[in-house]
Write a structure and sequence with these properties.
The protein is of the alpha/beta class. The chain has helices at residues 10-22, 29-34, 65-68, 137-145, 186-194, 201-223, 228-254, 276-292, 325-329, 336-359, 439-449, and strands at 45-50, 73-75, 78-80, 95-99, 101-102, 154-157, 163-164, 167-168, 298-302, 374-379, 393-397, 407-410, 437-438. InterPro entries: DUF1552, TAT_signal.
Length: 467
């Protein structure tokens, strides 16, 4: 078929090609074996999870400190969880809690601006500052392993889409720093992973390939009549087209491969945040199934959007509160720390359940458990009220990659900022009491252990040796 590019609405084409490219991409490790490829033992996976609004940070002299502080008490292998963190006790030997880590470029920025840079360490700024982002940790790893699975990565959030600058609904950003839209509807995620596409996929892929070829030819002719500035804009557009080319070629390779057999009968795929606990469990279960079937080895899930905007703020209804964000503002009230801690405990319950499920599942195509071969990052880009320092971070899994757990790396010690907001200045505006370690040092360490040949990531200054 001959396409007349003058008759194609480009925005409509991109929407159409997006459907054509996405529909055939389903599968598992078994599909590569079916094509005669050698099975690979111990695949290395990466999962990154973000929760908003910081954590309970009562000061040591506050009676709530012993029960509801998010960070454990102690250091090294000698540490104890508070009531806020008790749900993680059963997986304590499989995780490391870290304090005193943050991104240098964001330490003087309001905490609600920071989800955008959690996995990038970029200068996304605040207020009137220019917004510039870079590639996220997960996508850096996806460049390394994305061709080995049907999906290079799985990007999820409770709110879906991309959101806005400094109000992102996704923590995944491509190599140009552009946000990657997140999926939020459980049924669509399940269908994308495990439901067979229609028989017309091959024809639509062929049409997409043809249209892409003609679009590139058309663009090269157009270039000769453009100014230098317009040529730069065209180059950015063409990069997106070339990325679509890569997806088309990958889709063609997987087109005839059989889908994994997955029993979804135990999943309620029609639910929403109106059933917050079940919704969160289902989103974690979908990542578990995607990893177990080797449909992807990279996943992100933004549990909530910053600043109490969107459906994710309703997750607090699982434990009897109306909205989650408001809890972080009410810690000065009676039982304020307790209420905020109860909500964080709920998140830890469901995250701990996910970790335990990976730990209790033998590696389908190798040795050890799935958790031993899966590296998980869980945290937020603020700690105390709107404070962009001392991020609450938990690293878990990856024992077959050399990670040691059952420890609290308490870099902040007792030299931390916290306390309730009393209506005056906020902690993020105060002078820092200590010097945080660049969180990118941890990211560089993670990438290296995952098998990426690198010594650095973003603004890292070294590696973390004691994990």
């Amino acid at each position: 078929m001959t396409w007349n590019m003058n008759q194609i609405d480009r925005r409509r084409f991109l929407r159409g090609s997006g459907i054509a490219l996405a529909m055939p991409l389903f599968g598992s490790l078994a599909t590569s074996i079916a094509r005669g490829a050698e099975p690979q033992s111990n695949p290395k996976r990466l999962g990154c999870f973000y929760f908003p609004d910081g954590v309970p940070m009562p000061l040591p002299e506050d009676p709530a400190y012993n029960e509801w502080a998010w960070f454990p008490h102690g250091n090294g292998s000698e540490f104890t969880f508070t009531k806020c963190m008790e749900p993680l006790e059963s997986v304590k030997d499989d995780l490391t809690v870290l304090s005193g880590f943050s991104h240098p470029k964001s330490r003087s920025v309001h905490g609600h601006n920071n989800a955008d840079q959690f996995l990038t360490a970029a200068l996304t700024g605040g207020g009137d500052k220019e917004y510039v982002n870079t590639i996220s940790l997960d996508q850096e790893y996806a460049k390394h392993v994305g061709d080995q699975t049907r999906f290079a990565s799985l990007v999820m959030s409770t709110d879906g889409g991309t959101g806005t600058a400094r109000g992102t609904h996704t923590i995944s950003f491509d190599h140009h720093g552009r946000p990657i839209p997140a999926e939020h509807r459980p049924k669509q995620i399940f269908d994308k992973l495990f439901v067979k596409s229609d028989g017309d996929s091959a024809r639509r892929l062929a049409l997409s390939r043809s249209a892409l070829d003609e679009m590139l030819d058309d663009a090269e002719r157009l270039r000769r009549s453009l100014s230098s500035a317009d040529q730069h804009s065209l180059d950015e557009y063409l990069d997106s087209v070339r990325q679509a080319e890569i997806k088309v070629e990958k889709a063609k390779r997987w087109l005839g491969a059989p889908l994994p057999s997955v029993d979804g009968s135990q999943l309620n795929l029609e639910l929403s945040t109106d059933e917050p606990r079940e919704y969160l469990q289902t989103m974690f279960d979908l990542i578990y199934l995607a990893f177990k079937t080797d449909s992807t080895r990279v996943a992100t899930y933004q549990i909530g959007r910053e600043n109490g905007v969107g459906r994710s703020d309703h997750l607090a209804r699982a434990v009897g509160f109306n909205t989650a964000h408001q809890l972080s503002h009410e810690t000065k009230n009676p039982d304020g720390w307790k209420n905020f801690g109860i909500y964080c405990r709920f998140l830890n319950e469901e995250y701990g359940r996910f970790i335990g499920k990976l730990r209790d599942t033998p590696e389908p195509a190798g040795t050890g458990s799935m958790l031993d071969n899966t590296l998980l990052l869980y945290g937020s880009a603020s700690s105390a009220f709107h404070l962009s320092r001392n991020y609450p971070i938990i690293l878990s899994g990856g024992k077959q990659m050399g990670f040691r757990h059952g420890q609290y790396i308490n870099h902040a010690g007792m030299n931390f900022q916290g306390g309730p907001w009393l209506g005056n200045g906020e902690p993020w505006q105060d002078e820092a009491k200590g010097e945080d370690v660049p969180l990118s040092n941890l990211y560089a360490t993670m990438l290296q252990r995952l098998g990426v040949p690198t010594e650095s990531f973003a603004d890292s200054t070294g590696l973390i040796e004691n994990v």
